[in-house]
Amino acid sequence: MPTNGLHQVLKIQFGLVNDTDRYLTAESFGFKVNASAPSLKRKQMWVLEPDPGQGTAVLLRSSHLGRYLSAGEDGRVACEAERPDRDCRFLVLSQPDGRWVLRSEPHGRFFGGTEDRLSCFATAVSPAELWTVHLAIHPQAHLLSVSRRRYVHLCPRDDEMAADSDTPWGVDALVTLVFQNRQYCLRACDSRYLRSDGHLVWEPEPCARYTLEFKAGKLAFKDRDGRYLAPAGPAGTLRAGRNTRPGKDELFDLEESHPQVVLVAANHRYVSVRQGVNISANQDEELHHETFLMQIDQETKKCTFYSSTGGYWTLVTHGGIHATATQVSANTMFEVEWRGRRVALKASNGRYVCMKKNGQLAAISDFVGEDEEFVLKLINRPILVLRGMDGFVCHRRGSNQLDTNRSVYDVFHLSFSDGAYQIRGADGAGGAYTSGGSEVCVGDGEPHAAELARDTWCSVWHPIPDAALTGHPSTRLPEKLRPG
């Protein structure tokens, strides 16, 4: 399968939070570091790199400065090294509660402190030397086993998660990383959590929480007993094995999860490639052949649709639409026009895609009528994490409001009805956007919310392609609040 950006490994960026809930920050002025920031922004993002000498040490590079954290023999720390040297090498010591201790490899001292009083001179570990890893990537992704080269997905029939899928197709391939008590849980698309013994549970209990470890740019998940998740047996069932050190079997890649959609034509049948290269609206159920991966071009904001058979929709002779293209080109790009709860697709020939009498799709219409309108349904976000321009969306403690600038996030539930969606929190409430800054009030979630203006965030909303949010469904929301 040609990738063309379809299966991109996410660059793992993270923040380090100290015992006073402040983030390690790299400043441009003087290349100094401190732990004063209360939230995770660009200056607080770091990347872990393996030691070029192939040892167990790692390098911490600031995403903001592009320079490396270093600790001198006198304990002074800075982030000014353009190229890593001996003082940039640290050992990561994972603690039972999920936090990290960073020890200078050449000098044997521990890194920690508060605000602008950071040093790497401690000879013993105290609370000031404990750091919590907070991922800075969007937490909804696909999980790929490095050793098996297979994707993890939910197996409802076997009541487990397994790494046995060739492609991350359909809703069952969605994995959400949930931050709980300084550790991470793996949440399946049906909202259950993966326990270390391979069972799925409804609550993020201690056996379903893991410490993240990084090795050569890959992820490993360590349970509370010090064992690591790995695919086991012919089925690739995901559970903690016997190993207390991560090898290739225990390593995973996180890949970006693009929106996957189904389209329903005016004949109330699903658009499909089941019959071959022709794209036709002739199916009564939504399966893999009726599911298309949707990508948005960042410059033109036009979309491509990729099929499970391995081809992009493309414009061919006489306006026909086939799923045969292996590369993105002008003929594979479609402009999406929102018409209430329906969409119209304009091809590169300037004409709209319509459903012909035999169900086949063709870009031959100059105007939009009933045969040119489709219901577009997002199928791989039954649960949703929202990210705005300033951070994630999260309930404000002790209030019926949501903040849109948080470093932590809440997971919302998504339901679909006739071209629109309803967003509900864990308590079942819907939401309504308020125009006063970055606050969102929780509403009653009743159907009457659909009558509100479509440019406000209410219980019912429409997904919109957004070039700035590639890989995650955007919405008909104000600029400050869009899913990331």
Question: How is this structure best described in words?
Answer:
With 484 residues, the chain is mainly β. The chain folds into four domains: 13-135, Trefoil (Acidic Fibroblast Growth Factor, subunit A) (Trefoil); 140-256, Trefoil (Trefoil (Acidic Fibroblast Growth Factor, subunit A)); 260-378, Trefoil (Acidic Fibroblast Growth Factor, subunit A) (Trefoil); 383-461, Trefoil (Acidic Fibroblast Growth Factor, subunit A), CATH 2.80.10. 0% of the residues lie in helices and 44% in strands. The protein has no helices and 47 strands. Strands 13, 14, 15, 16, 17 and 24 form a six-stranded antiparallel sheet that branches. Strands 38-39-40-44-43 form a five-stranded antiparallel sheet, with no helix packed on it. A hairpin with a 5-residue loop joins strand 6 (68-71) and strand 7. The protein is elongated and about 80 Å long. The model is unreliable at 432-484 (pLDDT under 50). Residues 21-133, 142-254, 266-375 form the Fascin-like domain. GO terms for molecular function: actin filament binding; protein-macromolecule adaptor activity. Pfam families: Fascin.
Q: Work out the helicity level.
A: under 10%
Mean of the pLDDT scores?
Answer: 84
Give the overall silhouette: elongated
CATH class of the largest domain: Mainly Beta
Spans where pLDDT lies below 50 across 5 or more residues: 432-484
Give the percentage of residues in beta strands. Answer: 35-45%
Could you say what the CATH architecture of the largest domain is? Trefoil
Pfam families: Fascin
Domain Fascin-like: 21-133, 142-254, 266-375
Protein name: Fascin
InterPro entries: Actin-crosslinking, Fascin, Fascin-like_dom, Fascin_metazoans
